[in-house]
Amino acid sequence: MEMTNDPVGAAIQDFMAGNRKARIVVESNLTEDDEIEVAYLFRTPEEMPELELLALDECRGRVLDVGAGAGCHSLALQYLGVDVTALDVSAGAVQAMRQQGIRQVLEQDIFKLSGQRYDTLLLLMNGIGIAGDLEGLERFLEHTKTLLNLGGQILLESSDILYMFEEEDGSVLLDLNAGYYGEVVYNMRYKEHQTGKFKWLFIDPAILEDYATSHGYTFELLYEGEAGNYLARLALAQA
Predict the structure, then answer these.
(1) Rounded to two decimals, what is the model's pTM?
(2) Which residues constitute the domain of residue 51?
(3) What is the pLDDT of residues 7-42, one digit of tens each?
(4) Per the domain annotation, does 1 fall within a domain?
(5) Any domain includes 179
Protein backbone atom coordinates (compact mmCIF):
# COMPACT_ATOMS: atom_id res chain seq x y z
CA MET A 1 0.00 0.00 0.00
CA GLU A 2 1.57 3.30 -1.11
CA MET A 3 0.80 6.31 1.05
CA THR A 4 1.70 9.94 0.53
CA ASN A 5 1.43 12.75 3.05
CA ASP A 6 0.08 10.33 5.67
CA PRO A 7 2.57 10.52 8.56
CA VAL A 8 0.18 9.08 11.13
CA GLY A 9 -0.86 6.19 8.89
CA ALA A 10 2.72 5.42 7.84
CA ALA A 11 3.91 5.41 11.45
CA ILE A 12 1.01 3.17 12.52
CA GLN A 13 1.82 0.74 9.71
CA ASP A 14 5.49 0.67 10.73
CA PHE A 15 4.50 -0.01 14.32
CA MET A 16 2.33 -2.94 13.27
CA ALA A 17 5.21 -4.25 11.17
CA GLY A 18 7.41 -4.39 14.27
CA ASN A 19 8.90 -0.92 14.78
CA ARG A 20 7.76 -0.48 18.38
CA LYS A 21 9.78 2.72 18.78
CA ALA A 22 8.12 4.64 15.92
CA ARG A 23 7.50 8.30 16.76
CA ILE A 24 5.65 11.07 14.92
CA VAL A 25 7.20 14.54 15.04
CA VAL A 26 4.73 17.33 15.83
CA GLU A 27 5.60 20.93 14.96
CA SER A 28 3.46 23.84 16.14
CA ASN A 29 3.47 27.62 16.21
CA LEU A 30 3.27 27.60 20.03
CA THR A 31 5.99 25.30 21.31
CA GLU A 32 9.16 23.49 20.34
CA ASP A 33 8.82 20.27 18.33
CA ASP A 34 7.21 17.39 20.21
CA GLU A 35 6.85 13.68 19.50
CA ILE A 36 3.99 11.19 19.69
CA GLU A 37 4.98 7.66 20.58
CA VAL A 38 2.96 5.51 18.20
CA ALA A 39 2.64 2.84 20.90
CA TYR A 40 0.33 5.26 22.75
CA LEU A 41 -2.18 5.02 19.90
CA PHE A 42 -2.49 1.27 20.59
CA ARG A 43 -3.24 1.50 24.32
CA THR A 44 -5.58 -0.97 25.98
CA PRO A 45 -8.44 0.03 28.31
CA GLU A 46 -6.13 -0.76 31.23
CA GLU A 47 -3.74 1.91 29.92
CA MET A 48 -6.38 4.57 29.21
CA PRO A 49 -6.83 7.62 31.46
CA GLU A 50 -9.96 8.08 33.55
CA LEU A 51 -11.42 10.63 31.13
CA GLU A 52 -11.34 8.18 28.22
CA LEU A 53 -12.83 5.33 30.26
CA LEU A 54 -15.67 7.62 31.34
CA ALA A 55 -16.29 8.62 27.72
CA LEU A 56 -16.47 4.98 26.63
CA ASP A 57 -18.89 4.25 29.46
CA GLU A 58 -21.11 7.18 28.38
CA CYS A 59 -21.39 5.95 24.77
CA ARG A 60 -24.85 4.74 23.82
CA GLY A 61 -26.61 3.38 20.77
CA ARG A 62 -24.88 3.54 17.41
CA VAL A 63 -21.46 5.15 17.88
CA LEU A 64 -19.18 6.96 15.43
CA ASP A 65 -15.56 7.16 16.65
CA VAL A 66 -14.32 10.31 14.87
CA GLY A 67 -10.59 10.52 14.20
CA ALA A 68 -10.19 6.95 15.42
CA GLY A 69 -6.46 6.71 14.66
CA ALA A 70 -5.19 3.21 15.39
CA GLY A 71 -8.64 2.30 16.72
CA CYS A 72 -8.01 1.67 20.41
CA HIS A 73 -11.33 3.19 21.51
CA SER A 74 -13.30 1.45 18.76
CA LEU A 75 -11.72 -1.87 19.69
CA ALA A 76 -12.67 -1.38 23.33
CA LEU A 77 -16.26 -0.52 22.42
CA GLN A 78 -16.52 -3.40 19.94
CA TYR A 79 -15.30 -5.80 22.65
CA LEU A 80 -18.16 -4.56 24.85
CA GLY A 81 -20.67 -5.32 22.11
CA VAL A 82 -21.27 -1.69 21.10
CA ASP A 83 -22.30 -0.95 17.50
CA VAL A 84 -19.31 1.25 16.67
CA THR A 85 -17.95 2.62 13.40
CA ALA A 86 -14.39 3.96 13.29
CA LEU A 87 -13.77 6.96 11.03
CA ASP A 88 -10.44 8.48 9.99
CA VAL A 89 -9.00 10.34 6.99
CA SER A 90 -5.70 8.43 7.19
CA ALA A 91 -5.50 5.53 4.74
CA GLY A 92 -2.78 3.86 6.81
CA ALA A 93 -4.80 4.14 10.01
CA VAL A 94 -7.89 2.74 8.30
CA GLN A 95 -5.92 -0.22 6.99
CA ALA A 96 -4.50 -0.85 10.48
CA MET A 97 -7.94 -0.80 12.07
CA ARG A 98 -9.20 -3.34 9.58
CA GLN A 99 -6.13 -5.50 10.21
CA GLN A 100 -6.95 -5.47 13.92
CA GLY A 101 -10.46 -6.73 13.30
CA ILE A 102 -12.55 -3.59 13.67
CA ARG A 103 -15.63 -4.53 11.70
CA GLN A 104 -16.95 -1.11 10.63
CA VAL A 105 -14.35 1.36 9.36
CA LEU A 106 -14.74 4.44 7.16
CA GLU A 107 -11.95 6.34 5.40
CA GLN A 108 -13.74 9.66 5.36
CA ASP A 109 -13.67 13.32 6.35
CA ILE A 110 -16.36 13.95 8.97
CA PHE A 111 -17.37 17.15 7.17
CA LYS A 112 -18.09 15.13 3.99
CA LEU A 113 -19.95 12.30 5.70
CA SER A 114 -23.65 12.08 4.86
CA GLY A 115 -26.48 9.58 4.74
CA GLN A 116 -25.66 8.04 8.12
CA ARG A 117 -27.19 8.60 11.56
CA TYR A 118 -25.66 7.87 14.95
CA ASP A 119 -26.64 8.14 18.59
CA THR A 120 -23.15 9.10 19.79
CA LEU A 121 -20.30 10.94 18.10
CA LEU A 122 -17.09 10.27 20.04
CA LEU A 123 -14.14 12.66 19.72
CA LEU A 124 -11.29 11.81 22.09
CA MET A 125 -7.65 12.99 22.19
CA ASN A 126 -8.85 16.57 21.66
CA GLY A 127 -10.94 15.28 18.78
CA ILE A 128 -12.87 18.54 18.47
CA GLY A 129 -9.59 19.94 17.16
CA ILE A 130 -10.71 18.87 13.69
CA ALA A 131 -12.88 21.99 13.63
CA GLY A 132 -9.65 23.95 13.17
CA ASP A 133 -10.92 27.30 14.39
CA LEU A 134 -14.05 28.93 15.81
CA GLU A 135 -15.60 29.33 12.37
CA GLY A 136 -14.99 25.64 11.74
CA LEU A 137 -16.59 24.83 15.09
CA GLU A 138 -19.80 26.49 13.90
CA ARG A 139 -19.66 24.40 10.69
CA PHE A 140 -19.09 21.28 12.77
CA LEU A 141 -22.01 21.93 15.11
CA GLU A 142 -24.37 22.46 12.19
CA HIS A 143 -23.10 19.48 10.19
CA THR A 144 -23.35 17.07 13.13
CA LYS A 145 -27.07 17.77 13.34
CA THR A 146 -27.34 15.83 10.07
CA LEU A 147 -25.47 12.88 11.60
CA LEU A 148 -27.26 12.53 14.93
CA ASN A 149 -30.44 10.64 15.67
CA LEU A 150 -33.13 12.28 17.80
CA GLY A 151 -31.72 12.52 21.31
CA GLY A 152 -28.18 11.99 20.03
CA GLN A 153 -25.05 13.25 21.76
CA ILE A 154 -21.48 14.37 21.08
CA LEU A 155 -18.86 13.29 23.61
CA LEU A 156 -15.73 15.36 23.11
CA GLU A 157 -12.41 16.01 24.77
CA SER A 158 -10.56 19.30 24.60
CA SER A 159 -8.34 21.56 26.71
CA ASP A 160 -8.13 25.16 27.76
CA ILE A 161 -4.54 26.07 26.81
CA LEU A 162 -4.56 29.58 28.31
CA TYR A 163 -1.85 28.40 30.73
CA MET A 164 0.58 28.27 27.80
CA PHE A 165 0.46 32.07 27.61
CA GLU A 166 1.14 32.72 31.30
CA GLU A 167 4.10 34.85 32.32
CA GLU A 168 6.27 34.10 35.36
CA ASP A 169 4.29 36.59 37.46
CA GLY A 170 1.04 34.78 36.67
CA SER A 171 -0.23 37.34 34.16
CA VAL A 172 -1.38 36.27 30.71
CA LEU A 173 0.11 37.72 27.54
CA LEU A 174 -2.14 37.41 24.49
CA ASP A 175 -1.94 38.98 21.04
CA LEU A 176 -5.47 40.29 20.66
CA ASN A 177 -4.94 40.70 16.91
CA ALA A 178 -4.03 37.04 16.42
CA GLY A 179 -7.53 35.59 16.85
CA TYR A 180 -8.62 33.07 19.48
CA TYR A 181 -5.64 31.71 21.42
CA GLY A 182 -6.84 28.12 21.08
CA GLU A 183 -6.39 28.07 17.30
CA VAL A 184 -3.03 26.31 16.88
CA VAL A 185 -1.14 25.63 13.63
CA TYR A 186 0.50 22.20 13.34
CA ASN A 187 2.58 20.14 10.96
CA MET A 188 3.18 16.42 11.53
CA ARG A 189 6.14 14.51 10.13
CA TYR A 190 7.19 10.89 9.90
CA LYS A 191 10.03 9.83 7.60
CA GLU A 192 9.22 11.30 4.16
CA HIS A 193 5.59 11.99 5.10
CA GLN A 194 4.23 15.29 6.36
CA THR A 195 0.76 16.75 6.59
CA GLY A 196 1.65 20.33 5.77
CA LYS A 197 0.35 23.11 8.03
CA PHE A 198 -3.16 22.73 9.39
CA LYS A 199 -5.22 24.40 12.11
CA TRP A 200 -6.23 22.51 15.26
CA LEU A 201 -8.66 23.90 17.80
CA PHE A 202 -8.31 23.80 21.59
CA ILE A 203 -11.36 25.40 23.18
CA ASP A 204 -12.07 26.33 26.76
CA PRO A 205 -15.35 24.91 28.12
CA ALA A 206 -17.06 28.28 28.69
CA ILE A 207 -16.66 29.31 25.05
CA LEU A 208 -17.65 25.83 23.87
CA GLU A 209 -20.82 26.07 25.94
CA ASP A 210 -21.65 29.43 24.33
CA TYR A 211 -21.20 28.03 20.82
CA ALA A 212 -23.05 24.79 21.61
CA THR A 213 -26.12 26.50 23.08
CA SER A 214 -26.25 29.04 20.25
CA HIS A 215 -26.47 26.11 17.80
CA GLY A 216 -29.22 24.29 19.69
CA TYR A 217 -27.22 21.91 21.89
CA THR A 218 -27.25 21.46 25.63
CA PHE A 219 -23.84 21.42 27.34
CA GLU A 220 -22.70 19.24 30.23
CA LEU A 221 -19.19 19.06 31.68
CA LEU A 222 -18.55 15.43 32.60
CA TYR A 223 -14.91 15.55 33.68
CA GLU A 224 -12.18 18.11 34.35
CA GLY A 225 -8.51 17.09 34.45
CA GLU A 226 -5.63 18.78 36.26
CA ALA A 227 -3.99 19.93 33.01
CA GLY A 228 -6.97 21.94 31.75
CA ASN A 229 -8.38 19.03 29.74
CA TYR A 230 -12.02 18.07 30.03
CA LEU A 231 -14.79 15.83 28.70
CA ALA A 232 -18.06 17.43 27.62
CA ARG A 233 -21.41 16.16 26.42
CA LEU A 234 -23.33 18.13 23.81
CA ALA A 235 -26.87 16.96 23.14
CA LEU A 236 -29.43 18.30 20.72
CA ALA A 237 -31.93 20.27 22.77
CA GLN A 238 -35.45 18.91 22.51
CA ALA A 239 -37.92 21.18 20.76
Answers:
(1) 0.93
(2) 7-236
(3) 999 999 999 999 999 999 999 988 889 999 999 999
(4) no
(5) yes
